[in-house]
Amino acid sequence: MNRIHMFIATGAYSGYLPKAPGTWGSAVTVLLWFGLGRLPLVPYWGVVIILFVLGVLSAGAAEKIVGNGDPGLVVIDEVVGQLIALSFAPVNPTIALAGFVLFRIFDILKPFPVNWLDKHIHGGLGIMLDDCMAGCYALIVLQLGLYLIKLF
User: Hey, is 72 helix, strand or coil?
Assistant: First the structure.
C-alpha cells in the first residue's frame, strides 16, 4: 500500500525529479491535461475530484512514510491545482503555458488565503487545499485574460 500512496503522492514519481519537484509535477500535469482537457466538463471534474480525494489520502500517508510534514516530493497537490487552473481553457499550447506560469506564480507567492491554508491546515488536506486555492486564482486570471483577448 505504501508504494501506491507514494506513486500517487509523487505524481507518478515526478516529485523525485531534481531541484524543483513542484514545477516538475505541474509540467507533467500540463502534458496530462492535453488529453484530459478534451473531456466534457463533468468527467473532467470527476477526475479532478477523484485525484483530490486520492491526494488527501496519499499525501497524508506520504508525510508519515517520509517522516516530515508536506515533503517536497509530494506533488499530487500541484497536479490537482494545475488541473483546476486549466479546467475551463481550450486545449492549446500557448494557453497551457500561460496556465502553467500563472499556477506556479500563485503556488510560490501564496497570496491570501493560500498562505493561511498552507500554515493552518495540516496533513493531507492541508497539503492539497493551498494548491487548490492557488489553482483557483490561476483559473480566474487565465479566464479573465482569455475573455479580454476575445474583446480585442
Answer: coil
Q: Which residue has the cell 509540467?
A: 27
Question: CA-CA distance, 24 to 33, in Å (whole number)?
Answer: 14
Contact status, residue 102 vs residue 85, Cβ threshold 8 Å: yes
Read off the pLDDT of residues 82-118 as tens digits, 9 standing for 90 and up.
999 999 999 999 999 999 999 999 999 999 999 999 9
Helix (H) or strand (E) holding 54: helix 41-66
From residue 137, how far is each of 11, 81, 84, 132 by CA, in Å? 22, 10, 9, 9
Q: What is the pLDDT of residues 42-82, one digit of tens each?
A: 999 999 999 999 999 999 999 999 988 888 899 999 999 99
In contact, 138 and 83? CB cutoff 8 Å:
no
Q: How many CB atoms lie within 10 A of CB 22?
A: 23
- Grid coordinates representing 97 are 503555458
State the residue range of the domain holding 22: 2-151
Residue 130 cell numbers, joined: 493551498
Structural domains in the chain (count): 1
Report the percent of the chain where pLDDT is more than 90: 91
Q: What phi and psi, each to the nearest 5 degrees, are found at residue 64?
A: -70, -40
